[in-house]
Design goal:
With 176 residues, this protein is mainly beta. It has one helix at residues 159-162, and strands at residues 4-5, 11-12, 38-39, 48-49, 52-57, 60-61, 68-79, 82-93, 102-104, 114-120, 133-137, 143-149, 154-156, 167-175. Strands 5, 6, 7, 8, 9, 10, 11, 12, 13 and 14 form a ten-stranded antiparallel β-sheet that branches. The chain has a two-stranded antiparallel sheet with strand order 1-2. A hairpin with a 5-residue loop joins strand 1 (4-5) and strand 2. The two termini are 40 Å apart.
Length: 176
């Protein structure tokens, strides 16, 4: 079997370097392109990474689908089956929306419950100022739910509590 490194930096004549007995230990690779996947730290199935992606998405407000935003930013990083999203929103008008404040349109559908951090500003209702806030995902729902400690139990954060002109920032990691 011939192993040829052509002028463009590609290896031809081999489809599987491990089968060909080629090891790239202590090699300095610059901008390698790997199709299919790569083993990191071993050759077991748990060490195989075949999916990495980062990008942006347009988050929405689930219970105010016609809401307008002064700021509406969504970014994500997906490594294998783990996704981390960061969202920053500031709503200028809910346009008739009401109920719970939920960020919608996640880039990937969560496979279970996950929890993250949520931050708001001083424009939020004062009942949220001294309470523990959490962000979480629910299996098979493409949105982030916000809850707070209402004193005797946990309650969903509502659109009225967030208000207009306030910002919501959250980062959450979930699995798909």
């Amino acid at each position: 079997m011939a192993l040829v490194l052509n002028g463009s930096g590609s290896i031809t004549g081999v489809t599987d370097l491990a089968t060909a007995g080629v090891a790239l230990e202590d090699a300095a690779l610059t901008d390698p392109v790997v199709t299919g996947g790569v083993y990191l730290g071993g050759t077991g199935a748990a060490n195989y990474l075949d999916d990495y992606e980062e990008g942006t998405f347009t988050p929405g407000c689930l219970n105010a689908p016609s809401a307008t935003f002064s700021t509406n930013i969504g970014t994500y990083v997906k490594i294998g089956n783990q996704v981390t999203v960061t969202v920053f929103q500031s709503v200028t008008n809910y346009n008739g929306g009401g109920g719970d404040y939920r960020i919608s349109n996640l880039p990937f559908l969560p496979s279970g419950y996950s929890f993250g951090a949520v931050f708001g500003d001083n424009n939020w209702d004062t009942s949220l100022n001294t309470n523990n806030l959490i962000a979480y995902t629910i299996s098979s729902y493409s949105n982030i739910v916000f809850r707070y400690n209402s004193g005797s139990n946990a309650a969903d954060v509502t659109i009225a509590q967030v208000g207009t002109g306030a910002y919501v920032a959250t980062t959450i990691t979930y699995f798909v």
